[in-house]
Amino acid sequence: MIKILYFASLREKLGSGGESLELPDEVSDLAGLLALLSARDGEWRSLAAVKNLKMAVNQEIADASARICDGDEIAFFPPVTGG
Fold it and tell me: DSSP string of 17-74?
C-alpha cells in the first residue's frame, strides 16, 4: 500500500487531497504510477499532461524514473509560479 498526496490546484482539479492505493506488481516507478492514475476517467486523464509536474517520494523530490515500493509516500505538485 502506498499513500498518494495531491497538492494545490491538483487537489482541486482531481477533487481529492490524497488516497491510499494498493501498488500493482507491474508499477515500480513514478512513471508507471502516473500512467496508472492517468488511465482513470475524467480529470485524471490530464494528470500526465501537466507540464513541469513535480513529484516526491518520501518527501524527496524525484523524477519519473524514481523507484517506488510498498509503504512509500508519493506526492504530486503542480508547477509553481511566483510573483
Answer: SEEEE---TT--BHHHHHHHHHTSSGGGGGGGG-TT-EEEETTEEE-TT-B--TT-EE
For residues 68 and 58, give the distance between their C-alpha atoms in angstroms, rounded to a whole number: 9
| C-alpha grid cell, residue 81 | 509560479
- Give the pLDDT of the chain (83 residues) as one tens digit per residue: 999 999 998 999 999 999 999 999 999 999 999 999 999 988 898 888 888 899 999 999 999 999 999 999 999 998 875 55
Residues in Cβ contact with 10 at an 8 Å cutoff, skipping those fewer than 6 apart:
47, 50, 76, 77, 78
Domains of the chain listed by start with CATH number: 2-74 (3.10.20.30)
